[in-house]
């Protein structure tokens, strides 16, 4: 109550916060969010998670910047998947049915669920190798009839 009265009367002490020990970090920039691969899996996960959504932790894959989103630590046996070379990584990642598995320098794994390309296109990491494929929708005779009825 006394503090409230001091503020209301304009008599509360004003002590400027010292700059030393301040924890404010400036706005993160994309160029500072590149993934450093010589770290344990937990540090990779924290780096990706800490930069999720802005600015987004990134690495170079096939000559283009790819941003990683939605990481989680993976505590299981190494899943089956298609290898994906990542610039700077000591071991290739694995594109699996659940996402992209990356490896820390401790041999442990991190699962990344989504990837975003430089053009802004975001895909599930599990669809990395099928991202360029387009499939045509083919209707059965019954579905064609239903589509015609709807029109």
TrEMBL record:
Annotated ranges, domain Formyl transferase C-terminal: 29-130
Top-level taxon of the source organism: Eukaryota
InterPro entries in the cross-refs: Formyl_trans_C, Formyl_trans_C_sf, Formyl_transferase-like_C_sf
SUPFAM superfamilies listed in its UniProt record: FMT C-terminal domain-like (SSF50486)
UniProt-listed Pfam families: Formyl_trans_C (PF02911)
Gene Ontology molecular function: catalytic activity
Protein name: AL1L2 dehydrogenase
Source organism (scientific name): Ibidorhyncha struthersii
Gene it is expressed from: Aldh1l2_0
């Amino acid at each position: 109550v006394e503090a409230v009265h001091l503020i209301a009367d304009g008599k509360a002490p004003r002590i400027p916060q010292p700059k030393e020990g301040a924890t404010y970090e400036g706005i993160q920039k994309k160029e500072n969010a590149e993934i450093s691969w010589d770290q344990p899996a937990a540090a990779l996960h924290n780096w990706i998670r800490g930069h999720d959504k802005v600015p987004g932790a990134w690495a170079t894959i096939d000559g283009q910047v790819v941003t990683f989103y939605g990481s989680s630590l993976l505590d299981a046996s190494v899943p089956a998947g298609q290898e994906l070379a990542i610039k700077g990584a000591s071991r290739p990642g694995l594109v699996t049915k659940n996402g992209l598995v990356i490896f820390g320098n401790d041999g442990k794994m991190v699962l990344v669920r989504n990837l975003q390309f430089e053009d802004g296109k975001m895909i599930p990491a599990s669809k990395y190798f099928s991202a360029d494929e387009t499939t045509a929708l083919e209707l059965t005779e019954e579905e064609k009839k239903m589509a015609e009825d709807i029109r």
